[in-house]
């Protein structure tokens, strides 16, 4: 089966950040989540370190993550910066999602520089995002200010770090044009 360039172009060019307030609350079947994760596993990786790791929160797991995000915000906010709206926003974003995937990077400093692991994990997330787009599932990658606090919550090893959360949910598609400047402004040809 050879995908057509038109299909690939359409998926890449219609991928958008779709945020939890737009999610419908419909459950995402586990089989589709497994497809999303399997496609992530095919990202390019230097020296085959395959540094991506994922923790999937759904069902009651979303409540645990929401509680942790709220508790962490409350514990780290100064009295001057504390906002009840930010506290509820951190919790609600999780609870409005059908699934949230913690994106973890497992570094291998003895094999490759860390930036190469970041690039590989980013490619894995792009594969996830393109797959969700093809499946009609909204998604976006967030790096909350307290992302490093998730390392303990996720029981990560010293060689691992959480690099963000991937929020997912079905949504009512809207025409959201891409905001991009012309590629001609970003390319130099040497022929």
Can you give a write-up of this model?
- This protein has 191 residues and is an alpha+beta fold.
- The protein has a single domain, classed as NADH Oxidase.
- The protein contains 6 helices and 4 strands.
- The chain has a 4-stranded antiparallel sheet.
- Helix 2 runs antiparallel to helix 5 and helix 3 packs antiparallel against helix 4.
- It starts with a helix and ends in a 21-residue tail after the last strand.
- The model has no long low-confidence stretch (mean pLDDT 95).
- Its EC number is 1.-.-.-.
- InterPro entries: NAD(P)H_nitroreductase (IPR052530), Nitroreductase (IPR029479), Nitroreductase-like (IPR000415), YdjA-like (IPR026021).
- This is Putative NAD(P)H nitroreductase.
Secondary structure layout plus pairing:
Layout: H1 5-14, H2 30-40, E1 52-57, H3 60-76, H4 84-95, E2 99-106, H5 114-135, E3 137-142, H6 150-153, E4 160-170
Antiparallel strand pairs: 1-2, 2-4, 3-4
Helix pairs in contact: 2-5, 3-4
In short:
The chain is α+β, with helices and mostly antiparallel strands. It has helices at 5-14, 30-40, 60-76, 84-95, 114-135, 150-153, and strands spanning 52-57, 99-106, 137-142, 160-170. The protein has a 4-stranded antiparallel β-sheet with strand order 1-2-4-3.
């Amino acid at each position: 089966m050879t995908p057509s360039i038109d299909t690939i172009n359409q998926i890449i060019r219609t991928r958008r950040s779709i945020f939890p307030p737009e999610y419908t609350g419909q459950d995402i079947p586990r089989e589709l989540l497994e497809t999303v994760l399997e496609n992530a596993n095919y990202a390019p990786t230097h020296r085959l370190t395959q540094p991506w790791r994922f923790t999937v929160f759904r069902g009651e797991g979303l409540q645990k993550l929401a509680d942790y995000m709220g508790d962490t915000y409350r514990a780290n906010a100064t009295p001057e910066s504390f906002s009840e709206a930010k506290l509820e926003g951190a919790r609600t974003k999780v609870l409005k999602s059908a699934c949230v995937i913690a994106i973890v990077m497992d570094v291998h400093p003895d094999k490759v520089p860390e930036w190469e692991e970041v690039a590989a994990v980013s490619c894995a997330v792009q594969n996830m995002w393109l797959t969700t787009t093809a499946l009609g599932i909204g998604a976006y990658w967030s790096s909350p200010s307290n992302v490093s606090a998730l390392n303990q919550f996720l029981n990560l090893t010293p060689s691992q770090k959480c690099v963000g959360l991937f929020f997912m949910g079905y949504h009512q598609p809207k025409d959201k044009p891409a905001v991009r400047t012309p590629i001609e402004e970003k390319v130099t040809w040497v022929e």
